[in-house]
Amino acid sequence: MNDLGRTDRSVSVEMVDVEERILREIADPRMKRRDVALTYAFGVRQTGAVYGTTEQIDWPKVNRAIIDRWSLSALKWIKEEAWAYVEGRREP
Asked: What is the pLDDT of residues 25-52, one digit of tens each?
């Protein structure tokens, strides 16, 4: 049992301005597809696709930036990885 009297160990994290964060990561040559996939997963979770929150992300803009940097197949890979994080099939 923790200090709040709860026994669960889940932690909820919210990222501010996910769209801007993803776009910065895509533009940063040090960032890899796996880095972007994790942030993409945060975006999916925070835009209502999973938890019903209200943040809006211009997904076509983000997807175009991914294609422009890498390729269409990279976009597909990033989306698959992101959903694996969202669905708990992959751990960061």
From this structure: 999 999 999 999 999 998 988 876 555 5
**Cβ 21 vs Cβ 15: under 8 Å:** yes
Q: Once rounded to an integer, what is the mean pLDDT over residues 73-83?
A: 97
Please report the DSSP string for the chain in residue order. --TTS----------SSHHHHHHHHHH-TT--HHHHHHHHHHHHHHTTSSS-------HHHHHHHHHHHS-HHHHHHHHHHHHHHHTTSS--
Return the residue matching tokens 């160990």.
Answer: 9
